[in-house]
Design a protein that fits this description.
Elements lengths: L5 H23 L4 H23 L45 E7 L16 E7 L8 E6 L2 H4 L4 E6 L6 E7 L27 E2 L2 E2 L28
Antiparallel strand pairs: 1-5, 2-3, 3-4, 4-5, 6-7
The chain binds a DNA duplex (14 and 14 nucleotides) through strand 2 and strand 3.
Subcellular location: Nucleus
GO cellular component, one term: nucleus
Keywords: DNA-binding, Nucleus, Transcription, Transcription regulation
Length: 234
Amino acid sequence: MEVIGEWERKLLVQELSAGQEAAKELLSNAENSVAKEAKVQKILASISNALSLLRQTDANDDSPDSGCRSPLSDDSGKSCARPSKDQDRREISKKRKMLPQWTERIGISSDSWCEGSLGDRYTWRKYGQKDILGAKYPRGYYRCTHRNSQGCPATKQVQRSDDDHSIFDITYRGKHTCIYSTHRNPTNSPKSQPENVLDFKAGGLNIKTEAPENAEMIGSCPSFSFPCTPTVDS
DNA sequence: GAAATTTGACCAAG
DNA sequence: CTTGGTCAAATTTC
């Protein structure tokens, strides 16, 4: 059945339209390089989304929700099941849900990289790391910090590019349903110096010298403030 | 002490 | 069986 579902088609049109619009804006008004970069990232993200949708046209989910269906149906999860993990250590949904995913490529070595285009203002918690076949560096798995508290299903994967250490592929999966209480510094803790550029962790993307010998410092990352783009949403 | 990360094991899909 | 994704105990950091 190579017929694309109505929902997928709608998403495709949406993504492509977004990319087209961003391209138009980019052509019409060339503002700062920052805005330009954001636009380019948006275009790339849209294209990636469209491609992903096209590749997994077999999203044979049951009800193609129009976006208003609350996906919480397994709240009973791990309540009583504790030490006996023999049988079903967890009953996931029978079928793995295909959450929408998109990839963003960010480079650190570039002049300025900002992650303000697609909202990385969430707090991530690492829950795993795996070596991927063919990839030189392991892939880190992150999920939203508020998964326990608010049941936010969003996750992301961060992987370094094989060749360029400074290129990171961040794959986001799912949508955030949490409220961002990312108080970076609630009452400005008296001990946190504002000049900690060395071990910057941008929302879970913590680059620490993994290679003890190949300590390649990522140059200097300017203080990354999230609002790189004043006009985030269209 | 709480929250986050590390790391090995477990499990599902191809 | 291999590979990728997640869990959870142990460990580290705040």
